[in-house]
Amino acid sequence: MDKSVELVIELNGLHFSYDEKTSVLEDINLKVRKGERIGIIGANGAGKSTLFKLLTGLLTGRGEVEIAGTKLEKKTLCEIRKRMGLVLQDSDNQLFMPTLFDDMAFGPRNYGKSKEEAEIAVNKALGMLGIEELKYRSCTRMSGGEKRMAAIATILAMEPEIILMDEPSITLDPYNRRKLINNLNEMDQTLLIASHDLDMILETCERVILIDNAKITADGRAEDILSDKELLEQCHLELPLCFQQAMPYNRDSN
Question: 239: which of 42, 158, 211, 243 fits an S-S bond (Cβ 3.0–4.6 Å)?
Fold first, then answer.
């Protein structure tokens, strides 16, 4: 890796387990450059969500985590969380205020922005996602897809340098999924996206990290990893649909 390129995430020997018998993540070493778009893939239970929680200090493991040159520890959590936003897999865990506006303004206001600055950031994020009509709506009056877009908007309003997204396309209809993909491709922040939607990963990420058996099994160009049928199947994943459709039909396999 070119040392002149700014590293925004560096993990060295990261380990985590929920009990003494089973490691969820083991000896994870990872370097992320500023502006990279990285897809994090793996079967259910591979540790993708756990990795994101470790990066944001929601969980604590063994090993070293550095964010933008700052070691992650209790006294640096506030500083690091100003730089990083996490879209949780369950939108209901992210929406807790009376209206979406309140949820979206909470982060910017908490980090020192004025009321006017926070509202500008809120309106910008709503406009980016095309969900202005949800601004004053309660999450209890939103569909699953609307909640998903709303949860993403709360993070965009914080304008973090690094965005972690855990299954961002889940519950989205095709129209909003496409809108999300287009928005992701226009962002200049560093993006880490954990998802089973491998077609979305292929469209939005230039690099893919595959986690299997608690370790990083592959790390490389998205197209190379996502077109490797044997590798994906060994890790209990399937080729993205675009690659499946390009393969010749085998009548004997049905």
Answer: 243
Dihedral angle over CA of 228, 231, 237, 243, nearest 10? 10
* Beta carbons within 10 angstroms of residue 41's beta carbon: 27
Q: Would you say the C-alpha torsion 62, 24, 165, 108 has a positive or negative sign?
A: negative
Read off the amino acid at residue 222.
Answer: A
CA–CA separation, 121 and 240 (whole Å): 35
Separation of alpha carbons 78 and 76, rounded Å: 6
* Residue 10, φ and ψ in degrees, nearest 5: -140, 120
| Stated pTM of the model | 0.91
Report pLDDT digits (tens) over 204-222.
Answer: 999 999 999 999 999 999 9
Condensed to tens digits (0 to 9), the pLDDT of residues 160-169 reads 999 999 999 9
- SS3 for the chain, per residue? CCCCCCEEEEEEEEEEECCCCCEEEEEEEEEEECCCEEEEECCCCCCHHHHHHHHCCCCCCEEEEEECCEECCHHHHHHHHHHEEEECCCHHHCCCCCCHHHHHHHHHHHCCCCHHHHHHHHHHHHHHHCCHHHCCCCHHHCCHHHHHHHHHHHHHCCCCCEEEEECCCCCCCHHHHHHHHHHHHHCCCEEEEECCCHHHHHHHCCEEEEEECCEEEEEEEHHHHHCCHHHHHHCCCCCCHHHHHHCCCCHHHC
